[in-house]
Amino acid sequence: MVVDLFLYFTVYSFMGWIMETAFASITQKKFINRGFLIGPFTPIYGFGAIMIIQSSTWIGNMFGNYYISLLMCIVISTLLVTALEFITGYALEKVFNAKWWDYSNNMMNLKGYICLSYSLLWGLLAFLLIQVVHPLITQFIYLIPVSAKRYITALLAVYFLVDTYKSVISTLNLRKAIINHANLSESKYKDIIIKYKRIFLAFPRLLISIESVLSREVRSILNGGINRIKVKIRTDFKFEEEYKDCINDLISHEITRSMKNYKHHGDVNCLEHSLYVSYISYKICKKLGMDYRSAARGGLLHDFYLYDWHIEKPYKGLHGFVHPDIALQNADKFFSLNSIEKDIIKKHMWPLTVKPPRYKESFVVLMIDKYCAFMEIIKFGRRKKVKRLKEIFDI
Ligand SMILES: [Fe+2]
Ligand SMILES: [Fe+2]
C-alpha cells in the first residue's frame, strides 16, 4: 500500500511538473523548468493528489449514493488542496522572505496565497483525477510486479531525498546571498545569482517580492542575454565612431564618393565594395593589434582607379593586373598616404602583382578584398553592414 502511494505520488508530481512547466513555458515563450526540485517533479501536486485519492476512498465508504459521494469528494478535495496551497505558500514565504506565487490581484484571495479561481481549478482537476486519470494510473501500477514496485520505490526514494537535499541547500544559499549581498564581493554575488538562475526563472515572483533586497544588478545578471546585446550595440557604436575618424577626410571628398558611379561586382558599386573591405579590414587589424587606421584608409582606396572596367579601358593591359597601380596614382594625387596605405593599394591583387606585400596589414586587406568580392558575387552577408556604413557616411 505504501509502495503504491509512493508511486502515485511520483506519477502525479511528474504530471504536475508537466502542467506547470507547460504553462510557464507558454506564457514566457521559452522553456522554464518550473519546479522547486532539480528533477521533473513538483511534489505539491503529488501530495495534493494523494490527499484527494485518500479522502475520496474514505468518503466513498461513508455515503451510499454515488453522486453525493462524488460531490462530497470534490468539495473536500478542493478544501484540502486549497489548505495545502495556503500552508505551502505561507511556509515558503516564512523561510525565504519572499512569496513564491501571489494571487493578491485575484478576486477573493486570502493573503495572496490562495484565491477562489485557483481553488475552483483545483476542484476541476480533482474531479478529473478521481473520474479519469486515477483509474487509468491504478491499472497501470497494478500491472507492475510487486518486487519491481519495491525496487522502483527504493530508487525513487533515494532520488527524492538527494534532489530535495540539493534543492533545499541551493535555495537556502541563494536566500543567504540575497540577504547578505552587501557583505559579498560583486563577483561572488554575481556567481551565486547565475548559479541559481533556474530558481529565479522558475519563480519570477521572487524577483518582485524581494525587490527591496535585490539590487538592479541581479536583474541585469539574470537578463544576461539582453545585456550582451546591449554591450554589443555599445561596442559596435564605439567601433563605428573610431572607424569614422580613421577615414573621415577620405570619404568626405567628392572624388572618393564618385566611386559609387562605377559598377564593381554585380549590383555592387565600387564605393560600396571599398567601404566593405575597409571596415572589415579595420576591425580585423584592430583585433590583431595592427595598424587599423592604415588598413581602413588603404582598404577604402584600394580600388580607387575611377573608371568602369566593364565598359572603359583607359589604360593598357588587363584590368586585374594594372588597376592597383592606377588606384595608387589617383590616391597619391588627391591624398597624402603613408607607406602602409600605399603598399595596401599597390599589392591588393597579389599574387597577380608579383611583388609580395611588405606589411601584414596589406595581407589582411588583400585577403578581405577576396572575401568581400566573393560575398558580393554570391550576394550574401554584406547587405546590412554596407547599408549601415552608407547611412553613417550619408552616401
Ligand atoms: Fe581591386
Ligand atoms: Fe577590391
Automatic annotation (TrEMBL):
Is Transmembrane helix among the key words of this record? yes
Q: Which Pfam families match?
A: ABC_trans_CmpB (PF06541)
Question: Could you tell me the keywords of this UniProt record?
Answer: Membrane, Transmembrane, Transmembrane helix
User: Which InterPro entries does the protein's record reference?
Assistant: CmpB_TMEM229
Q: Where are the transmembrane segments?
A: 6-24, 36-54, 66-92, 113-134, 140-162
Superkingdom of origin organism? Bacteria
Q: What is this protein called?
A: Uncharacterized membrane protein
The record lists the organism as: Tepidimicrobium xylanilyticum
